[in-house]
Each structure stands twice: as structure tokens, then as C-alpha cells.
Amino acid sequence: MTKIIGLTGGIGSGKTTVARLFQNKGIPVYIADEEARKIMALPETVQKVASLFGEEVLKENKLNRKQLGQVVFNDPSKLKMLNELIHPLVAAHFYKWIQIHNSFPFVIKESAILFESESYKNCDKIILVIAPEEERIKRVMQRDQLTKEAVLQRIKNQLSDEEKIVKSDFVIKNENLKETSKKISDILKFLSNLYQKNLIVNIWLILLTVKC
């Protein structure tokens, strides 16, 4: 059975960059945030979101992501409502995706809210990406054209790194690309050795059972 390796990190930690580095090494990576954006662009999803939060989150019959962010990230109850709508749709899509990649010993599932959504419970190992808060704030301000206050509000809505570290199997300090790449190689070596051995043992047991 294909193992699921969860990959997560706070906003601006660089988890998507890390995900791309894993992809470059030939590992199938499911980027939940990207798939969620695609799902949220579907007409039926747009209608459901508008029914929850009002027409103010729409612009020319499409979701105004910036406006939606202002609504949900300033109200935990509304953020919870949005996650409860989108998360099951992403989970169903991931289930179909992993069936396509079930010949691999393991795949990686990248998700910003892996712990908050409790989907980490379905993962065999967890990789956490962390970075200094000031660097995270700077990255997100440049990337999303947000104010520092808006970024801090989004960070506040996520679990702290300290809370995530105790639940993670691997931690990548994403401050230096060279060091990050080395850490990824070390993790891949460990996972490959672990799950390739498990695969060989499982095949041996199957053959033994058939022979008996």
C-alpha cells in the first residue's frame, strides 16, 4: 500500500518550494492548496461560498479571493465554515489522485492546514517546514501584496510551530536553499530505505502465502 507523507508548514514557511524540490526528485506530490484553488473556482463551489458569506466575496461572478480572505481570516467561525466546505472536496480529489499513483512506495501530500484539518491522522509520516517569523511575513507581503497586519492575522489562525513540531517526524528549517536541499535528500533516503524494505517484506509474505 502506498504510504502518505504529509508536508506542512505555516504561511510563508516555503512549504510549496520544498514540495517542488521533492517533485524534482521524482516523488509524486499532491499540493492541496493548489487543488483547493481549482475547486473554489468551480461555478458550483462559487455559489456555495457566496451563499455562506454573501455577494460581497464575488467579483464578476467569480470569487474575490482577497475579499474572501478579509472575511474569513478576521472571524475564526467563518474560517471554520469555509474549511468545512472545501476540505471534504479536496479530500475526495486526493483519494482519486492517490489511486493513480498507487504504484509508488510513498507520495507526498502538501497542505497548509494538515494539522488544523486533522488530515495528518491519515498520514504515515509528517514533514514540517519552518522559517523565522519575520522572514515568513516578508515573503507573504511580497507574494500576496498584503499588509503586515493581515499576514500576522493569518499566522494567528494557524497552529504555532511549537505545537506542530511535537507532532512531526521531520523538521526542515527553510532558511538556506542548499541546506534545505540537503535535508530533503536525507529524508528521501530514509523514507526510501524504510518503505522499499517494507515493500520487499510484503511481497515476500504474499509469495510465501501463495506457496503454502
From TrEMBL:
A GO-annotated cellular component: cytoplasm
PROSITE patterns given in the database record: DPCK
Keywords: ATP-binding, Coenzyme A biosynthesis, Cytoplasm, Kinase, Nucleotide-binding, Transferase
Residues annotated for ATP binding in this entry: 12-17
Pfam short name (any one): CoaE
Subcellular location: Cytoplasm
InterPro entries per the UniProt record, alphabetical: Depp_CoAkinase (IPR001977), P-loop_NTPase (IPR027417)
Catalytic reactions on record: 3'-dephospho-CoA + ATP = ADP + CoA + H(+)
Family as reported in the entry's similarity comment: Belongs to the CoaE family.
UniProt-listed HAMAP family: Dephospho_CoA_kinase
PANTHER family according to UniProt: BIFUNCTIONAL COENZYME A SYNTHASE-RELATED, DEPHOSPHO-COA KINASE-RELATED
Protein name in the entry: Dephospho-CoA kinase
Organism the protein comes from: Flavobacterium davisii
Gene expressing this chain: coaE
